[in-house]
Amino acid sequence: MGCAGSTPKVDENSKKLKKPKAWKHTEPITLAQLKQMRDEFWDTAPHYGGRKEIWDALRAAAESDLALAQTIVDSAGIIISNPDMTLCYDERGAKYELPKYVLSEPTNLIRDV
């Protein structure tokens, strides 16, 4: 039996995910250009190290809402170093860096009319 003021043990490796801060691309880009940048990143990311299944989980999390993203990273055993997911590690210590453009849209995105 615990103290009246005790709280459940929280895994120190799991941080609560937060929406990335607003950012601006160097020049205004369209949604199609942003999608192309994202696809190029995800296609080449596994070649920089780490495990493919962790990259796949990070992509699924990046493309999901915060609640689902939290569930994905927790179940994959991903250690979130930055709450906006820009820096993560797997259980083996491999580092995964995600650019802001795969996590959110820039403030100067050109919307199709």
UniProtKB/TrEMBL annotation:
The record's PANTHER family line, in alphabetical order, gives: UBIQUITIN DOMAIN CONTAINING 1 PROTEIN-RELATED
Residue ranges for the region (Disordered) are 1-22
**In its UniProt entry, what is this protein called?**
DC-UbP/UBTD2 N-terminal domain-containing protein
Q: Please state every residue range assigned to the domain named DC-UbP/UBTD2 N-terminal.
A: 14-112
What species does this protein belong to? Eragrostis curvula
The residues the entry assigns to the signal sequence are none
